[in-house]
Task: structure prediction
Amino acid sequence: MEETGSGFKTPLKVDRKKSPGVSARSPSFTIPASPFMQKFGYGTGVSVYLMKRSPKGLCHSPWAIKKISKQCDKSNRNLYEQRLSDEAKVLKNIQHPNIVGYRGFTKSKDGSLCLAMEYGGNKSLNDLIEERNEKGEGPFPAETILKVAINMARGLKYLHNEKKILHGDIKSSNVVIKGDFESVKICDVGVSLHLDENMTVSDPKAYYIGTESWKPKEALDESGIITDKSDVYAFGLTLWEMMTLSIPHLNLPPEDEDEDSFDEDDFDEDAYYEALGTRPPLNMDELDESYQKVIELFSVCTSENPKERPSAAQILEVLEAEGSI
Result:
């Protein structure tokens, strides 16, 4: 490993996917029935709706409403309600411009628990990645990736250092974008974990859930020690997503290959599981010299050894010093 001019260490060679509850539920607002709201997102067991608020002709900013999906299996409903309740508890105590804000927690008319949040934008970073991929536009410009990186780093530094919270599921679908990257906000803290003074998840009952393709090595090992650096690995893969327009470690057929001829038997499951927690490859032919800083940041953040990854605070210090935005 060598120290680069940008302040990051990078490899010499970049390698080639019961009833929960928040005590105070606001009685001051009513959640409309789902058919009267615009659905613009979803996750495991939940759907997200746009709730427009203009009572008596007044113009108020809209809210994002997260509620349990009607299609959610009844056997898992309690689990997802608990996660939604946990997310409400965490979000209620968070206030940062790069994290979607809390607005309220209540029940809709059909009895479903609903978390009302700041409307950070109608598209996730993952939505934009998929759109760009479909249009065949190639990697996001390096300047755009660095803008996302510095805003995410600000949010993560706040969570880690000030709130002692590990997000636990950083990925492009949990980053909300407004307009032409006018704002970048981290969302979905429903599986977050508490960090101790050593930036370590020390609670023996705490379990890192995350999303498989974005899990670091330590989260794939039953005896692995989870720290703030677990978020940093997933952060690095989010930058990789913007450079490759792909899901980490999930090797799908090339664009010129007939998708109809591709089936599950063509998927190399062994190779996929072996690749989890490693640094995925980059197509260097698509990345010119303007991406050097992004590649360096991606590389150091995705080291398999957590101790070799920078903290969110260190990432932010370097990016701000270099005037990335």
Summary: The first helix runs from residue 74 to 92. The chain has eight helices and twelve strands. Residues 10-27, 253-257 have pLDDT under 50 and may be disordered.
